[in-house]
Amino acid sequence: MRLDEVARSRRDPGVVVLEGFHAIKHAVRFGADLLGVWTADPAEVAALIARLAPDIALDPTVVSEAELAAVVPRAQVLAVARRPRQPDPDGILALPGPAPVILLEEPRHLGNLGACVRVAAAAGAAGVITTGVQDPWHPDALRGSAGLHFALPVARSRVIRTGDRPLIALDPTGEPLSAAVPERAVLAFGTERDGLSDELLARADARLALPMSPGVSSLNLATAVSGVLFALTALRGR
Ligand SMILES: C[S@@+](CC[C@H](N)C(=O)[O-])C[C@H]1O[C@@H](n2cnc3c(N)ncnc32)[C@H](O)[C@@H]1O
Q1: What is the pLDDT of residues 38-87, one digit of tens each?
Q2: What range(s) does the tRNA/rRNA methyltransferase SpoU type domain occupy (predicted)?
Q3: Which domains does the chain have, with CATH numbers?
Q4: For burial by CB atoms within 10 Å, which of 8, 29, 76, 92 has the most?
Q5: Does the CB atom of residue 172 touch ligand 1 within 6 A?
Q6: Where are the beta strands (DSSP E) in the chain?
Q7: Which residue, judged by its Cα, is nearest atom 21 of ligand 1?
Q8: Would you say the CB of residue 210 lies under 6 angstroms from ligand 1?
């Protein structure tokens, strides 16, 4: 692939654009099939690999700063990868094992969405399902996840679906989170401004919260996902 083809590939659902070293590093580490890598500073990329990711190999095409900035204004290295084959939402829900699935209801901020994918991967969630208009594979979400979309399945669903899993609503008004959260749960988190929908709250088997100091209304979405996943790990003694 040539650098001047990257703009068109942004509209191709079969490929993903990876902006920045960390996104590319994780994508490669978790098996990405790269179609092209470009940088204007190969020495810096080589230094980053040596310092942060000696387990990966990259062979970037060297272009001028102006050529790279015309495609991506903020990154010192850019790559395009084939979008990995991953389960659809029903496939994610059907995955075996005790790990929870993270359901993000209509997330608005792509960086936040990506940060949720990142912590879901770090904490061993089975997968991430989103609803709403945002494409969870948008380059800004991939940048937010540091490329960890390649480490676990991430898919968008048009409707709220839970398969045969219990649905747990995470909401600041809920009961304090405890180790009693069932295994294989769908852990649902609401949109940044308005929280969870009435429909989801009505369907939930339980409504749970991370207790906060008096006067604090809520946590940032990705912070809440992180707090819940790692609190559950600690509460269950794993
Ligand atoms: C920024 S908050 C939404 C704030 C919204 N005004 C509300 O009251 O729900 C985004 C999501 O993070 C989760 N969240 C935030 N703080 C939480 C807490 N203390 N306990 C559990 N979940 C929380 C909830 O799922 C919430 O819908």
Answers
A1: 999 999 999 999 999 999 999 999 999 999 998 888 788 999 999 999 99
A2: 101-226
A3: 3-82 (3.30.1330.30), 89-235 (3.40.1280.10)
A4: 92
A5: yes
A6: 15-19, 34-39, 61-62, 77-82, 101-104, 127-130, 154-156, 167-176, 186-189, 206-209
A7: 209
A8: yes
